Amino acid sequence: MLRKDILVKAANYCAYQERTQAEVREKLQNWGVYGDDAEEIIVYLIEENYLNEGRFARIFAGSKFRVKRWGRQKIRHELKARHLSEHAIREAMQEIEDDDYLDTLRTLLEKKKHELRTEKQPLILKQKLARYAIGKGFESELVWDVLSKLISR
Fold first, then answer.
1. Model confidence at 152: pLDDT above 80
2. Whole-structure pTM over 0.85, yes or no?
3. CATH code that applies to domain 3-47
């Protein structure tokens, strides 16, 4: 493939949906573009604002929180797995407002508590709820704090 064709194809790939540099690098390798050629294309995509890891991280964090109800820890882990910089990850975490975060955790726990209403043992109920929320990526201290208020009712 010609260099110009690869540039257009890569730009279209990035325009379709937000991508990370690692995703673009992998796609370029699939197209047979390696080394300095791949890096030059990535630089071009960044300069032309097709590729912006900060923007990717903010959109990813915001959507995973709002749509999937993931906690900060799970989002942070996923962003690290996508080889994003610590700066981009910190920026992404600012997308999640503390009040919304706490409200989401409470709502998740109340909904799950309702699903587990047949569980009569308060300690077992708390453990199941905590395991659920921590598995969603919420911080254990916060989960236990919210649970202590939720179960005492």
1. no
2. yes
3. 1.10.10
